[in-house]
């Protein structure tokens, strides 16, 4: 797995951090994004690392009613 760039790491959360905050497994989160139940990641870098910002997390919590 590629390590995210340092400046991105401070501005965004990566998928494992978001999954932890939402209480979802990797499969559950990936499936919900794939099916359009959760928004697409805020950005994806050239290595395929997905990044999520606070706005994304807020939307996801509202959708999941957490």
Can you walk me through this structure?
The structure is a single chain. By secondary structure, the chain is mainly alpha-helical. It has helices at 6-11, 15-22, 26-34, 54-64; strands at 13-14, 43-44, 50-52. A three-stranded antiparallel sheet has the order 1-3-2.
> Which term fits the overall shape?
globular
State the strand order across the main sheet.
1-3-2
The total count of strands amounts to: 3
Distance between the termini: 29 Å
Level of helix content? Answer: 40-55%
- Runs in which pLDDT lies below 50 for 5 or more consecutive residues are none
Biggest beta sheet summary? 3 strands, antiparallel
The number of helical segments is 4
Briefly note the structural class of the backbone: mainly alpha
What would the average pLDDT be, to the nearest integer? Answer: 91
Radius of gyration: 11 Å
Amount of beta strand: 5-15%
Features:
66 residues; mainly alpha; 3-stranded antiparallel β-sheet; 4 helices; 3 strands; 52% helix; 11% strand
